[in-house]
Amino acid sequence: MLTQSDLQAIAKLVDQKLDQKLVPIQTKISEMEQNMATKSDIGRIRGDLITLENRLAKVESLMVTKADAKAIATVFDLRKAFRGVVRQKDLNAMERRLTKRINLVSDSVDERVLRIEKHLNLSPVISS
Question: Cα-flanking dihedrals φ and ψ of residue 101, to 5°?
């Protein structure tokens, strides 16, 4: 049987082990709490971002000049030319699909003609 002093010694050992395990955890939690942003920090950052966005918008509006307008026109011209390339690619794909379908129909017609010739005991007209 365990005596009262034995139970106290066990409790003391458990407390020591728990303290050894809890101290690093408590330290880590306190470090995390120190590095956490508060609501006021987030509000200040939001304000700074809004100010920065407003400044950026002003600078962008000042940068638009006649030369930039010409550059924009060339970008639009490039987009138009690119659209033409895309259309050409689409046409090429359509041509490939059409060629495949024609080949399939041609093969189908050839097979039918061969079956009809065979059925009618005719000499082959189509040379395979």
Answer: -65, -40
pTM higher than 0.85, yes or no?
A: no
Per the CB < 8 A criterion, the answer to whether 113 and 125 are in contact is: yes
What is the four-CA torsion angle of 60, 65, 68, 72, rounded to 10 degrees? Answer: 90
> Tens digits of per-residue pLDDT, 20-67?
888 888 888 888 878 787 788 788 888 888 888 888 877 777 766 655
Cβ–Cβ < 8 Å for 113, 124: no
Lookup result for tokens 């509000």: 43
**Two tokens, residue 25:** 């955890």
Q: Are 94 and 86 in contact (CB under 8 A)?
A: no
The structure tokens listed for 36 are 């956490």
Nearest alpha carbon to residue 127 among 110, 102, 108, 109: 110
- CA distance linking residue 110 with residue 128, whole number of Å: 9
Give 114's contacts (C-beta < 8 A, 6+ positions apart): 124, 126, 128
